[in-house]
């Protein structure tokens, strides 16, 4: 990890499985073209968003150290973010949704440190430093919104995915990489788009993760705030897109009052959004989040919760009424009258209490899975966890005694009790047996030659959620995405253009020193640009900005004339040229 970004203590507290996603920013890799793209987008955004964004945006730019003229360094951002209780790390493109959410729960922004190509200056489906740094970072300076973001991460990281969610994540990640990569063939993009569309059409019932991801999209990424008639922008996707931030305020985009129904509204990252949701204030976001959380298996548990974990085919956790937590890959459950009576995991399993693994009950002990009844004993109204020492002795549930426990659901556990494990409140949470047999009618669920049988104690499953209770119980390094972002390849032509941008940047920093020399340099730069890179527009706009202050009307008019013809030649970028000139001349007439 880059030592320069470790100044913020929040980063030091990140668990190992999140640290695996962090990469160095490598600030020296940013080219002069990259810096010009940042500068153009930020100047356009600050000019326009000062009128339509939530007031927290401009305040946040100052508080988070985001400058208009240069791409921010992670070191500088972390030093300033620490003052408002947050941090930032660089990552490689989209990371898995659960990991993204968990970073938020630790109050850490994940920022893709790469920046969009000039050809995608208005919008890119791939995350980049404009979207993450200039979009997300400023708004978290608002304490109420920052707490919503943290809480969203805390809840969202526990959302249960379906096995298709990860396939969709990888497909969208690949599509975003290919669309942003320089020189990708249309055939490859078409294939990736078909793969995403095919998955979108065959996802089945939306998982918890899919639903909460929708809520995240329509708030954190594309949210509006205020009234439907006069909304303001706060979503990072809108704050970082000079095209969509303007379009979204038009009547062409439907405005909908934000409520929990947004969880069922899907989205397409590759296109402009046809509708947006408007929250009256930031507190309403938290209200809807809690409303959604109340419906999650995290809070409801039960048979539906464990079935969601089984469908996910991934490591998850159930928590019993005693507080005992079982983490592993759940594969089956027996039920009666809509209630679970016996559950099974397959493969490595760990038992925890209050998110801390129980000594002697990690994945080495339970390497082949874990199974246990859940519920009350048949014909006995008092659950084992609620029994006093006198009650336990009365039912022969004591050490070194052979006992036969008949649970509701026809689960029978028979064997010699070795010992019991209690929680901090004195309730038994685990009973260990030797020579134990567990049956369900004629089915044998455990037999003596399998070794020691550890039986979980709990009358109900009160919670079910994604991931392990104790992150140290499992090696989660395998969750790193398979695809890698594609870096731009250096070419002789590209290097020459980069050199021209770098020269203009140097002129900008020295123009107050030697005006005559600056004019000579700019004229030479423009002549090379016009002859060898006639399709590039941004550098010509940057030169005009300098000429406005240097009072060389003849060269200024020549470059304006060049841009006029470029607008005719490339109508798709005409509005970008006009937008840049409007910024420079601040509404005054110019010759185009």
UniProtKB/TrEMBL annotation:
Which Gene3D superfamilies does the record associate with it? 1.20.58.690, Aromatic amino acid hydroxylase (1.10.800.10)
> Biological process (GO) annotations?
aromatic amino acid metabolic process
Query: Which protein is depicted?
Result: Phenylalanine 4-monooxygenase
* MF annotations from Gene Ontology: iron ion binding; oxidoreductase activity, acting on paired donors, with incorporation or reduction of molecular oxygen, reduced pteridine as one donor, and incorporation of one atom of oxygen
Q: Which Pfam families match?
A: Biopterin_H
Q: Which positions in this protein are listed as binding Fe cation?
A: 131, 136, 221
Q: Which cofactors does the annotated protein need, by name?
A: Fe(2+)
Q: What is the lineage of its organism?
A: Bacteria, Pseudomonadati, Bacteroidota, Flavobacteriia, Flavobacteriales
Family assignment? Belongs to the biopterin-dependent aromatic amino acid hydroxylase family.
Say yes or no: keyword Iron present: yes
Q: Does the keyword Hydrolase apply?
A: no
Q: Which domain of life is it from?
A: Bacteria
Q: Which UniProt keywords apply?
A: Coiled coil, Iron, Metal-binding, Monooxygenase, Oxidoreductase
- Coiled coil stretches, renumbered: 182-209
Task: Please state every residue range assigned to the domain named Biopterin-dependent aromatic amino acid hydroxylase family profile.
Answer: 1-342
